[in-house]
Write a structure and sequence with these properties.
The complex is a heterotrimer of chains A (208), B (266) and C (637). Helix content of chain A is 76%, strand content 0%. Chain A has helices at 4-7, 9-34, 44-55, 59-87, 103-106, 108-127, 136-143, 147-174, 180-207. Classes of the chains: A mainly alpha (208), B alpha+beta (266), C alpha+beta (637).
Chain lengths: 208, 266, 637
C-alpha cells in the first residue's frame, strides 16, 4: 500500500478513528474490570483479577500494542492540530456555531492533553506504584483517601467523558456510519464511562 | 404583523426602514494587516438584499470620497455562480439556510443591531482586498482530476449509457456544489473536505467517471493537501452553511473512496 | 459595402459537411505552434478553449471572475434543446431548424441555424460523456421536456440548474487542459483593447484586476465569447459583471455590430421592489405551464388578489390568445403584460406587475404535485419576496434577459476583422429577432465544441501569421489608449456615482428602447443618451487609483462603454421600421396590437460600423435569403 496513505489527511483521519476506537474498547474493558472494586469483598475479586492479568502471557504484547496505539493517537492529534492551526492563521472576530460544533468538539486537543497527563500519573500511581505493603486494592483504597487526588481524578474522568462524547460519533462518521442512533449510543457510553470511572474513587474514598 | 399585513404595507410603499452598525473587515491588500471598521447605516429597507445594503453603503462612501468603497465579490446575485461569500456575524453566508450571501435579505436582521462582516478566513484563501479572497486553490484541485477525460467529438450516443434516475439524482446532489468556499470558511480547521468530496462523488459514482476513479480520488485529495487546507474533524459546520445543502455523508464517501484507491495501489 | 456571410453553396443539409471538407487543415504537429486567445469562459468560451487545446493549439483563456466556472451561463435554469427525437414525437433536425428560424421571426441565417440543429445532438452526447447529470427516465435513458411553447419534447435538463451543470462540464474539460499544460488560465483579467496588426486581430490588452497593471497577449487569432449586453439596461437578469466592453472595444476597432436592438425580455421575472435594486431574478418559464396570468379588470384595484372574484379578473393571455393561452412566446407574453400595466391595471406597489396564479393548478393537482414540479422556484420566490406563492399569487413582470444582437460574424463565426472570432451570445448569428427557450445553451456549446475547432483551423491554415511580439507598436498604442481612458475616468472626481449614471441610462433605455419602441421616443432617447454621457465624463466620481484592485474603476469602464453602446442600440431600433421578435415598434402593429413585420424592406441583418463617438455609424446590410422556409406571420391566436 503506498505510503502516502498515512500522511494524507484522510489517512490521518482514519488513523485517528481506528486508534480512538481501540482505546475506547480498552476503556470499556478497563471499567468492567474495575467494577470488581464494588463487590465489597475487601478487594479479593479485584486482586485476583489483577493477578490473572499480570500473569497472563499475552499481557506484555497487549500492553505494547496499546502503547503503540496510544502514541499513534497522540502523534496524529498533534500533527492534525498543527496543520489545522496553520490552515487558518487569522481567525474570526465573531464566531458562531450553526452545525455540530460543540464544547467537546472544539476542545478535543485540550481534553486530550488532560487525559494524557492523567494517564501518565495514573500509571505511575497504580501500575508502577509501590505495592510492597499490600495488594493493588489496598493501594487503590489508600490513594483515594487523599481528597486532592480524588478531586483531580474525578475531574479528569469528566474531561475524558467530554473527549469521548465527540470521539465516538466522529470516529463512526469517519468510518462512514452516521446516524442518530450512533449519536445517542455515543452519549450513553461516554456518560457510563465518565460516571463509572468517576464513581469508583468516590465510592472507595468517601462512601465506603 | 401577519405576512399578509406586511405585504399590504410594503405594497403601499410604507415598509419601515431599519438602522444598523456595520462592522467590516478592511484590508488594503495582501500584505496589509487589516482591521475592523464600523459604519453606521440608516434607511435600510427590509426587502433589500444584503449585498444591496452594501451597495448603498458603498454609494455613501463614494459620494463622501473620504475613503475607498468596500470591495466584495458578487456576480449573479441569484445564488448559483458561487462568487459571493461573506462571514456575517460569525456564520458563512449569514443566517439563511441553504442560501448564499446574495440571497440574504435585511429583514433577517434586528433593527439597531451591529452586523459583523468578515472575509473567508483560510491560509489557502488569501485576502486580496477587504472582503475579496483568492479561491484559485479550488480550481487547482479540480485541475488535478475533477473531470472525465473525453475529447470533444469522441462521445458515444448519450442513450448508449443507461443511468438510473436514482444514480443521476445522487450525482446531481453532489454536482450541485457551487464552489463558493463556505465549507472552508465555516470549518474551524479551514478544511476543504466537503468541496472535494462533492466533486469526487459526482464523477466517481457515474459510469463516465469509472476509468479514472481511483486516480482522480488520490490526485484531488493530494492537491487539497498541497493547497494547505486543514483536516476534517467532523463538526458538521460545513454542511450547515452549504448553500446547496451538500451533506457530510459525501465526506464519508470520500474517505472510503480514498481507502479503496490506496488498496488498489494508486 | 455588401456583407458576405460566406455561406457555403449546395443543399441546406449538406452545407456544413461540405464546408468542413473544404476548410484547410492545420497539420497536427503544427498546431502546437499556434496560440489562440479566448476571452470569456462561459459555455461558448470554455468549450472552445478546451476543444482547441485538445486539438493541440496553445490557448490563453481569460475571464473577469476569480474562476472560469463563475461565468453567467451558470445561471441558465431551463434546459438545452437537441434534435435527438428520443421521444419519437416527430422532432427532427429540420423541425428544430424550422422552429428556430420561425421563432426568430425570420431574421436569422438559414445556413447557420440548420448547422446548429445538426450539431445539437452531438452536444448532448458530449455533455453526457463528461458526466453532466441530466434528468433520466426510469429506464435510465435521458428525459426530455417541452419548453417555451415547443410542440415536441426536445429539451434536456438537469433539474432547474442545466446551465450550471453544462458549464461545470465545459469547465472540467477546460481544467483538464490546464493540467496538461495546453491552456493557460488568466482569471480576474478584463479585456480593454483588441490589437490589430496588419489588419488582422493579433492580440489583446487586458487589465489585471488584482494588481491593476496592464498586460499584453499576442496570438494567431482572438476569440471573443463574452456574452450579451443586457446590463445596458442596468436592471436585467444578467450577472452584475456582464458587460459590453470586450465586444464594444472590438467594434471600435472596426468589427461590425449586428442587430444591437434585438433584446429579449423575459416575461416571468420578480418585479422591481425599490430604487436600490441591483438586479432582477428570473423565474423559470416552465411556471407558465401551470400558472394563470391575470390582472384585475378595473384600473387601480386595491383589493387583495384572493378577494377579487373570477369574473372581475382578466386572464388576458387566455383571452387574447385562445389557442396558446399562457404559453405564448416570451416576446408576446412580455408585451401583453406591459400593455395591461400601461392601462393602469398592473398590481403591486409600483403598478408594474401582473399575477401568476397557481390556485387553480393546486385545486386540480393538489399542493403536493405543484410543489414537486416547482418547489424550488416557489421557495426562491418566497425567499426574495417573503410571500408564500402557495397561498397568494406570484407577482411577475418582464425583465431584460438575453440579447440576440452581437458582433457580426460570417458562417465561420469570424467577424469582418480577419482573425477575430465571436462565439455564443456575443455574436448575432442564430436567434434572429427572438430566441427560443433552451436554445442559448445549445448555441454556446455548438459554437465552442463543434464549430470553431473547424473554422479557426481553416483561418490559421490559410493565413500564415507573421512573427509579432507584444512589443509591436500596435500593442503600445492599444495599451496607451486603455491607460488614458482609465486615467481620464479617475481624474474627473465629480459628484455622482457610477451606479447612479448606470441606473439613469438603464431606465432611459427601458422606457424608450425596451419592450416597445417608437420613432419619437427613440429620437428623444438618443439625445438624452448623449446628454447623460456628457455629464458622465464631467461629473462621475471614481474612487481609488489605477494600480490596485478597484471595483469602482472596473464598473466605471464598463458603464462608459454602455454609454456609447446605448446610442447604437437606439440607432438600430430607429432604423428598423418594422416590428419583429423582441423589437416592437409601436407604429408597426396590427389593429389588434400584434407585431407587423415588413419582409419586403427589412429582411436583412443590420451590421453597424463605428465612425466615432457621437458620429452616426454606417449601416451595412446583409440580405437574408430564405431558400428553404416560407416566411409566415407568427400567430398564436
Amino acid at each position: 500500500m503506498p505510503s502516502k496513505l498515512f500522511s494524507s489527511p484522510i489517512g490521518k483521519k482514519m488513523g485517528m478513528a481506528l486508534t480512538g476506537l481501540i482505546l475506547y474498547g480498552f476503556l470499556i474493558g478497563h471499567l468492567l474490570g474495575n467494577l470488581l472494586l464494588l463487590k465489597g469483598d475487601g478487594g479479593q475479586a479485584f486482586n485476583a483479577y489483577a493477578e490473572f492479568l499480570i500473569n497472563h502471557p499475552l499481557l506484555i504484547p497487549a500492553e505494547l500494542f496499546l502503547v503503540v496505539v496510544f502514541l499513534l493517537h497522540v502523534y496524529l492529534a498533534i500533527s492534525v492540530t498543527r496543520e489545522n492551526r496553520r490552515a487558518r492563521p487569522v481567525g474570526y472576530q465573531a464566531t458562531q456555531s450553526v452545525g455540530g460544533r460543540n464544547f467537546a468538539s472544539y476542545t478535543m486537543i485540550y481534553s486530550g492533553i488532560i487525559v494524557l497527563v492523567f494517564l501518565v500519573l495514573h500509571l505511575k500511581t497504580f501500575k508502577y506504584g509501590d505495592k510492597a505493603e499490600g495488594t493493588l486494592y489496598d493501594l487503590v483504597s489508600a490513594t483515594f483517601q487523599q481528597t486532592g487526588y480524588l478531586v483531580w481524578y474525578v475531574i479528569a474522568m469528566l474531561v475524558l467523558g467530554v473527549h469521548l462524547w465527540h470521539a465516538f460519533q466522529s470516529a463512526f462518521q469517519t468510518l462512514s456510519v452516521r446516524s442518530d442512533k450512533i449519536r445517542s449510543l455515543g452519549l450513553i457510553l461516554c456518560l457510563i464511562l465518565a460516571l463509572g470511572f468517576g464513581f469508583l474513587p468516590v465510592y472507595l474514598g468517601i462512601l465506603k | 404583523m401577519t405576512e399578509e399585513q406586511s405585504r399590504r404595507k410594503r405594497d403601499a410603499g410604507q415598509s419601515d426602514c431599519l438602522s444598523f452598525t456595520i462592522s467590516i473587515w478592511r484590508q488594503q491588500g495582501l500584505n496589509d494587516k487589516g482591521q475592523m471598521v464600523s459604519y453606521p447605516l440608516k434607511r435600510v429597507r427590509p426587502e433589500m438584499s444584503f449585498l444591496e445594503m452594501l451597495d448603498v453603503l458603498n454609494g455613501e462612501l463614494e459620494r463622501k470620497g473620504e475613503e475607498l468603497p468596500i470591495s466584495f465579490d458578487s456576480d449573479c446575485r441569484e445564488g448559483i455562480c458561487g462568487m459571493c461569500g461573506l462571514v456575517i456575524n460569525g456564520v458563512a453566508h449569514g443566517p439563511g439556510h441553504g442560501t448564499t450571501t446574495c440571497q440574504l435579505y435585511m429583514r433577517s436582521f434586528a433593527d439597531g443591531s451591529t452586523i459583523t462582516i468578515e472575509p473567508w478566513r483560510a491560509a489557502a484563501f488569501p485576502v486580496i482586498k477587504d472582503l475579496v479572497v483568492d479561491r484559485s486553490a479550488f480550481d487547482r484541485i479540480i485541475q488535478a482530476g475533477g473531470y472525465a477525460s473525453i475529447n470533444s467529438g469522441s462521445a458515444p450516443d448519450a442513450n448508449s449509457m443507461l443511468i438510473s434516475q436514482e444514480l443521476a439524482s445522487e450525482a446531481f446532489d453532489a454536482a450541485a456544489c457551487i464552489g463558493c468556499g463556505a465549507c472552508v470558511a465555516s470549518c474551524k480547521n479551514a478544511s476543504a473536505m466537503l468541496f472535494v468530496s462533492a466533486k469526487v462523488k459526482h464523477l466517481n459514482i457515474l459510469p463516465q467517471g469509472q476509468p479514472e476513479r481511483h486516480k482522480r480520488t488520490v490526485a484531488m485529495v493530494e492537491a487539497m493537501q498541497q493547497e494547505g487546507f486543514g483536516n476534517c474533524t467532523n463538526e458538521y459546520e460545513c454542511e450547515a452553511v452549504c448553500p446547496k445543502e451538500i451533506a457530510v455523508e459525501h465526506i464519508s464517501f470520500l474517505n472510503r473512496e480514498y481507502l479503496k484507491a490506496k488498496v488498489a495501489g494508486k | 459595402m455588401a456583407l458576405d456571410g460566406h455561406i457555403p453553396s449546395g443543399p441546406l443539409a449538406e452545407k456544413w459537411e461540405k464546408h468542413q471538407f473544404e476548410l484547410k487543415l492545420v497539420n497536427p504537429a503544427n498546431k502546437r505552434k499556434h496560440n489562440v486567445i479566448v476571452v470569456g469562459t462561459g459555455l461558448a468560451g470554455a468549450s472552445a478553449a478546451a476543444t482547441l487545446a485538445e486539438l493541440g493549439y496553445n490557448v490563453l483563456s481569460f475571464c473577469l471572475q476569480d474562476s472560469p466556472r463563475r461565468a453567467h451561463s451558470i445561471a441558465a435554469q431551463g434546459g438545452i434543446n437537441a434534435a435527438k427525437n428520443y421521444q419519437n414525437d416527430g422532432d427532427s433536425i429540420y423541425r428544430l431548424f424550422y422552429d428556430t428560424i420561425k421563432g426568430g421571426d425570420y431574421r436569422a441565417r438559414e445556413a447557420n441555424v440548420y448547422r446548429l440543429a445538426q450539431i445539437s445532438s452531438h452536444i448532448i452526447d458530449q455533455c453526457a460523456a463528461q458526466g453532466v447529470p441530466f434528468a433520466r427516465e426510469y429506464g435510465g435513458t435521458l428525459a426530455n421536456r417541452s419548453f417555451g411553447g415547443a410542440q415536441v419534447s426536445r429539451t434536456f435538463y438537469a433539474r432547474g440548474q442545466t446551465g450550471q451543470q453544462l458549464l461545470l462540464g465545459a469547465y472540467s474539460a477546460l481544467m483538464r487542459q490546464v493540467e496538461i499544460g495546453k491552456v493557460t488560465l488568466l482569471p480576474r483579467r478584463e479585456m480593454l483593447e483588441l490589437v490589430m496588426v496588419d489588419d488582422k486581430a493579433r492580440g489583446i490588452v487586458v487589465r489585471n484586476l488584482i494588481s491593476g497593471e496592464m498586460e499584453r497577449y499576442v496570438a494567431d487569432a482572438v476569440i471573443i465569447a463574452t456574452g450579451g449586453y443586457g446590463n445596458a439596461f442596468f436592471l436585467s437578469t444578467n450577472a452584475k459583471a456582464c458587460n459590453v466592453t470586450a465586444t464594444w472595444r472590438a467594434h471600435r476597432k472596426g468589427a461590425f455590430f449586428a442587430n444591437p436592438s434585438f433584446t429579449q425580455i423575459h416575461p416571468t421575472c420578480i418585479p422591481v421592489s425599490g430604487n436600490y435594486q441591483s438586479k432582477l431574478t428570473l423565474m423559470s418559464e416552465s411556471l407558465r405551464n401551470d400558472g394563470r396570468v391575470w390582472v384585475p379588470k378595473v384600473q387601480k384595484d386595491q383589493r387583495a388578489p384572493e378577494q377579487i372574484p373570477a369574473d372581475e379578473r382578466d386572464y388576458y393571455l387566455e383571452r387574447r390568445y385562445p389557442s396558446f393561452g399562457n404559453l405564448v412566446p416570451r416576446d408576446v407574453a412580455s408585451r401583453a403584460a406591459k400593455a395591461v400595466c400601461d392601462e393602469g391595471r398592473g398590481v403591486g406597489s409600483s403598478g408594474r406587475a401582473v399575477y401568476l396564479d397557481f390556485a387553480d393548478a393546486i385545486k386540480r393537482d393538489g399542493e403536493h404535485v405543484i410543489s414537486q414540479k416547482y418547489g424550488n422556484l416557489f421557495d426562491m420566490y418566497q425567499e426574495i419576496t417573503n410571500e408564500n406563492p402557495y397561498q397568494t399569487p406570484m407577482r411577475i413582470y418582464p425583465a431584460v434577459h438575453y440579447t440576440m444582437g452581437g458582433l457580426w460574424v460570417d458562417y465561420n463565426l469570424m467577424s469582418n476583422l480577419p482573425g477575430l472570432f465571436v462565439l455564443g451570445e456575443a455574436n448575432f448569428s442564430d436567434h434572429g429577432a427572438n430566441r427560443l427557450g433552451a436554445s442559448a445553451l445549445m448555441q454556446g456549446l455548438a459554437d465552442g465544441y463543434f464549430v470553431i475547432p473547424y473554422t479557426i483551423g481553416g483561418y490559421i491554415a490559410a493565413n500564415a501569421a507573421d512573427d509579432v511580439g507584444t512589443d509591436h507598436p500596435a500593442f503600445d498604442q492599444a495599451e496607451q489608449a486603455a491607460t488614458e481612458r482609465i486615467d481620464k475616468l479617475l481624474a474627473i472626481k465629480g459628484k455622482r456615482t457610477v451606479d447612479d449614471f448606470h441606473r439613469e441610462l438603464g431606465l432611459l433605455l427601458w422606457d424608450h428602447c425596451g419592450m416597445a419602441r417608437n420613432a419619437e421616443g427613440l429620437s428623444s432617447a438618443k439625445q438624452k443618451v448623449r446628454e447623460i454621457r456628457e455629464e458622465f465624463w464631467q461629473n462621475v466620481t471614481v474612487a481609488g487609483t489605477a494600480g490596485e484592485f478597484n471595483q469602482v474603476l472596473e464598473r466605471a469602464g464598463r458603464v462608459a462603454d454602455f454609454m456609447e453602446f446605448a446610442e447604437l442600440m437606439i440607432d438600430d431600433a430607429y432604423e428598423r421600421n418594422e416590428s419583429c421578435g423582441g423589437h416592437f415598434r409601436e407604429e408597426y402593429q396590427t389593429e389588434e396590437g400584434e407585431a407587423r413585420r415588413n419582409d419586403d424592406d427589412f429582411t436583412y441583418v443590420s451590421a453597424w460600423e463605428f465612425q466615432g463617438v457621437g458620429t452616426d455609424p454606417t449601416l451595412h446590410k446583409e440580405e437574408l435569403v430564405f431558400e428553404n422556409v416560407h416566411l409566415t406571420q407568427r400567430s398564436y391566436k
